[in-house]
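Quick one:
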Amino acid sequence: MENSKLITLLRTIHCVRHAQGFHNLSLANHALPDPELTETGKNQCTKLSQAFPYTSSVSLLVASPLRRTLYTALLSFPTLTQAPKNLKIIALPETQETGAVPCDTGLEPEALRKEFKDQPVDLSLVKEGWNSKTGKWAPEADAVRARAKEARQWLKARPEKEIVLVTHGGFLHYLNEDWAGFDAIKGTGWVNAEFRSYSFKEEEGDNASMVETEASRKRRAGTEIPLTGTEELQLRRTTSHKENPNSSLSLLSKA
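Output:
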């Protein structure tokens, strides 16, 4: 049991926000269905590939099933998906973006399988209805928090010690429960193709809480004082109060 706990505490999750997509260029582009990366976004992937320092120790690559996150994973981590590692990108529906606008709504599973049939992408977890934006997938604060918790639990239960997860700017705040730097206009405190590293807290219960590593904070020159628990709760309540499918979650879709 103690050895199992030690492995859990040592696990590192490198969270990556996707590179620039066409929906990031204008509010009108939020009407684009599941848009691809721009040329700038592809260049951001190249730069991330060159700058990411942990490739040799990563043994699991995970991404939201939206196209911009899958392509960010493919273009940013070719050394993980090619020999000798030959990893497949596991598409995890729980990590999709928070909004219900077209740019945040993924393709049908069959369409994804067709588009990525020649790519190292594992779509076995992507089932019919994952893009319905209803029930578990609804653009509502409680539903997003619940699936963010599911995603954390899934990651914590994996045996791999070092994992890359490519997901979305809005969802990342729910996943990490870290709202410091959140910009309500941009819908996120993360820039495109940014990565931060997290570990799991030692705690009671099943929340699988994450905390940014000291090395990650230093790497991005994070000198700001983290929010207190009370401040985090107040910000989360303020954000939740605004959330509905037509308001702040639409803002979050910019992420």
